[in-house]
């Protein structure tokens, strides 16, 4: 069987990967993904869609001095299962969190209590401070089906 130059991979996927790399995105193939902390993407299972360690690093960099518990609360909120929600409601909720930040309770040392802080998820003013990753052939297993998109872009670990 002969190899054809006119494939989806050669005409679409590879040029997009090259362009993304030229724009400063890190690129990785997940076709032969390994799992766990030292794995290809740090995912434990194919069911995870948020890259939590990348998200944790971004949240720590964008929200200096906040306790680990607040960072974990923010990660839990972003990664929360929204499959029971309508697509519109889930998208609106995630959009609001990305745009306005994630409200978390932190210690208020001045008043000996708690206060609400909004953790920034994306640095909109200085985009170069964000983590950009393009993943090719990422398998995702859901409750209804498995999919493997050609390319998935992640900003600070969020697809």
Question: How is this structure best described in words?
Answer:
With 159 residues, the chain is an alpha+beta fold. The protein has helices at 8-22, 52-62, 68-79, 87-100; strands spanning 26-29, 102-108, 113-119, 132-136, 140-141, 146-147, 151-155. The chain has a three-stranded mixed beta sheet with strand order 1-4-7, covered by helices on one side. A two-stranded antiparallel sheet has the order 2-3. The chain has a two-stranded antiparallel sheet with strand order 5-6. A hairpin with a 4-residue loop joins strand 2 (102-108) and strand 3 (113-119). The longest helix has 15 residues, at 8-22.
Topology as a string of helices (H) and strands (E):
HEHHHEEEEEE
Q: Catalogue the unreliable spans.
A: none
Which structural class should the secondary elements be placed in? alpha+beta
| Apparent shape | elongated
Characterize the main sheet. 3 strands, mixed
Strand order of the largest sheet: 1-4-7
Radius of gyration (Å): 18 Å
The count of strands amounts to: 7
- Proportion of beta-strand residues: 15-25%
> What separation lies between the terminal Cα atoms?
36 Å
SS summary, helix count? 4
Helix content: 25-40%
Mean pLDDT: 91
């Amino acid at each position: 069987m002969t190899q054809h130059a006119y494939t989806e991979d050669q005409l679409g996927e590879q040029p997009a990967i090259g362009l993304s790399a030229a724009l400063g995105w890190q690129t990785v193939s997940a076709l032969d993904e390994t799992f766990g902390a030292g794995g290809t993407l740090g995912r434990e299972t194919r069911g995870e869609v948020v890259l939590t360690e990348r998200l944790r690093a971004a949240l720590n960099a964008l929200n200096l001095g906040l306790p680990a518990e607040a960072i974990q609360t923010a990660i839990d909120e972003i990664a929360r299962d929204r499959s029971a929600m309508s697509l519109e409601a889930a998208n609106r909720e995630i959009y609001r969190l990305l745009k306005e930040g994630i409200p978390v309770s932190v210690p208020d040392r001045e008043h000996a209590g708690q206060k609400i802080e909004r953790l920034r998820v994306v640095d909109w003013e200085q985009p170069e401070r964000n983590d950009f990753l393009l993943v090719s052939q990422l398998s995702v297993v859901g409750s209804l089906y498995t999919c493997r998109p050609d390319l998935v872009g992640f900003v600070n670990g969020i697809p």
